[in-house]
Amino acid sequence: MSDYKSIAARKQQHLESLIPTEWRLDSSQIPPGMLSPADSVTNVSSYESVNVTDIPRTCGLLSPNELRITEEYDVRSLLTEIHSKRLTSEEVVRAFCKRAAIAQQLTRCLTEPLFTQAIAQARTLDAHLQRTNKPFGPLHGLPVSIKDTFQVTSTDASSGYVALAFHPSSKNSDLVTLLHSLGAIIIAKTNVPQTVGALDSVNNLFGRTLNPLNRRLTVGGSTGGEAALLALRGSMVGFGTDIGGSVRIPPMCVGIYGFKPSVGRVPYGGQQEVGNVGVGRVSLQAVAGLIARSVQDLGAVMREIVPRAELFGEDCIPGTWGEVGNLTGKGGRLRVGVLRKDGLVEPHPPIARVLDEVAQILRRTPGVEVVEVPVPKALAKCQWLANKLLGVDGAGAIMDLIEKVNEPLIPWLKGRMRRGKVSTIADLGKLQAQRAEIEREMLRMWTLEGEGGDRSLHIDAIIHPVAPHPVPEPDRYNGVGYTSSWVLMDYPAGVVPVRKFGEDDLELGKEMSAPVKGSWDKANRALWNESTVDRRVYLDSPLSVQVITPKLHDYELYRAMQISDGAIRAGSKETAKL
């Protein structure tokens, strides 16, 4: 039986060897409190409230041209520069690889640097463009990154398990194959939690990924490495997966954008799976999604993926991306519903406030109508059912893999992860019948019934909290039902940042007065009660909202996010003038 510590030490040494010496920060440039990867799993109390987002710009490792490449372009404008030959793929990819290396030294966001392969691919693309005068594909030269669970040939997909280190993949995931066909260049794989089933990106193999905005707060999970890398501009677009909120929670934690599509829009197949492969098809199905620094970047990439997805993934469906579907409600106006809570966990005052601020901004936006949405009774059933479906395999294979190398559970999973009973076909049938009943009830939230039983779409999109609390300290995330419920429903959902948590949001000396609704709500109060948390830790952290649309209305989600984001940015500028 191997010891997890020795395996982890070898893996970390291997990772470090893949970062060129000339790309390494001086120790004086790394803020104090950067614990060893092993210590970072449990010892987080020494981290200071340090924002490291300026260090790539000021450290001196990036040339003025590399700073320009990594900071001044969105996806479309960068592709225009590459395709018009004003920038080469190689210089673009090298700049992002170097910045990703810096991000790793500040946050531990990477698991597999693919720098050598990425630069070689960039040279091949440059030669193709010179020879043919045509881009290899619409994303020719675009530097992207992927969550560690996606497989890349000859590279580990350890997925937070020590036992899977030094077991390179023999194939590419379907999304990787699609990205290569589009000309995108994958520069790195990024960190995840142990089991990919926690809301902090920490494991015994690579340690804890830190939040670059504030090391005392979580970066979220399970796609936390991607969020940290994107926040430090070490990649243009990141790809992750979502079964409980994993491409929405990390963007919330660093103030960027996340997009969870419907099942079938982005290829998910070929993930590194543990246990009963394919169990997701009969329980709760995860989806692949995107993280980016703007809504426009999300749209630019989805525009190329969605029409091609069915050709690359057996789990994908035909689709188009453009002016299709119903985005405007009655009278040609976009009708946005405000869903203020989930019926189980009461949002903290600043979460309720920022949702109301966005609602007020949208009410002042031409062409937008805002309506209140009563909390559907069925919504309160979603988190319990999602949890039951997630546990149908009993976690036996997961625990076997962890115990194989004497690996301890990370803090967030202690008390949450254990061996359970494997569900029978009859059990699964009952759970899916309950799911269908909830889905039927939830339809009423979206539709309006007319005479003769005719139905029409009543609401185009909903705004809702991402979480019932601000970005918490490590290992304290709560209220996952605000994101997991929409996976159960298979509703597309995205995250839009709004503003920073300010002094007025603290409400020092004032506690929540609403009656506690249950154990989940009680745990959430501990993140606001002044006897159990110093609220000042939340200062300057990002506050965001979630945008949700009905099943398969993915393009409509993009447009609703675009409209909401534009209104929020315009509203922020008007406020700044006052």
TrEMBL record:
> What are the positions of the active site?
147 (charge relay system), 222 (charge relay system), 246 (acyl-ester intermediate)
Keyword Hydrolase carried by entry: yes
Key words of the record:
Hydrolase
SUPFAM superfamilies the UniProt entry points to: Amidase signature (AS) enzymes (SSF75304)
Q: Where is the Amidase domain?
A: 91-557
Q: Which GO terms describe its molecular function?
A: hydrolase activity
Q: Which PANTHER family match?
A: AMIDASE, PUTATIVE (AFU_ORTHOLOGUE AFUA_1G14530)-RELATED, AMIDASE-RELATED-RELATED
Family membership, please give it.
Answer: Belongs to the amidase family.
- Name of the protein: Alpha-glucosidase
Organism annotation: Aspergillus ellipticus CBS 707.79
